[in-house]
What does this fold into?
Amino acid sequence: MSELDDLVAVMARLRGPGGCPWDAEQTHASLVPYVIEEAHELAEAIEAAEGADGDAHLREELGDVLLQVVFHADIARAEGRFDIDDVARTLAEKLRRRHPHVFADSAVDGVDEVVANWDAIKRAEKPERGSALDGIPVSLPALARAEKLLSRARRAGLEPAQPQGADASAPETEDALGRALLALVRGAADRGQDAERALRGATRALEAELRAQEHARAARHAEPQP
It folds into this structure.
C-alpha cells in the first residue's frame, strides 16, 4: 500500500462508522473555509521556506491542502458519486490533453505558445464560457482578482484604457512595490477609505470595459467581409 493509499484509508476510517463525529458530518460546503485557509497557509509557507525547517513546514502545509482534496473525495465516494481515483484520473487526462506538445505530436516555440495553446484548448473544452474573462472567482481577494483579470485580458489581446490621472509606472523592485502599495493602503485608511472595496469597484469597471471591447471585436469579426 502506498502512503497515499494509506491516507485515503485513514480518511475513510475517520468518516466511517465508529470514526470521528466531526469528520463524519462535514459537507463540501462546510469545508470551504478550510480550503481557503489552507491555501493561504501554503502560500505563506512557500514564501517563507528556507532550509530544513522550511521544508518541514512546507511539507506539512502541502499535506493540509492534500487533506482537503482527500476529504472532499471521500464525501463524494460515500455518496456514490466519485472517488479519489476519479479525481486523479480526471486531472491526468486534462494534463495530457492540454499538453499536446508533450503527449502528442504538436510542436511549440516557447512558453508563450504553450500558454496560447492551453487557452485555446480550454476554450474548446468549455464552450459555455463565451468570454476569455469568464471563470475568474469573484471571491478572490481584490488584488489577486485584478491581476488575474489583467493577465486574462493580455492573453486575449484586450487593451484596457489607462484610468484618467493614474500613473501606470511601477517601482522597479517588488520590495519597493510592496512599500508603495502599503503606503496607498495606509493613506486610504487615514482618509476613511476602504482600499479593498475601492480596488474591487475599479476592477468591476475594468471588467465591464474589457467585456465591451471583447464583444465589439467579436461583432466586427462576425460582419460579412466585402
Summary: The chain has three domains: 3-82, 86-127, 136-159+173-221. The two ends are 67 Å apart (CA to CA). The longest helix spans residues 51-78. The CA atoms of residues 45 and 59 lie 9 Å apart.
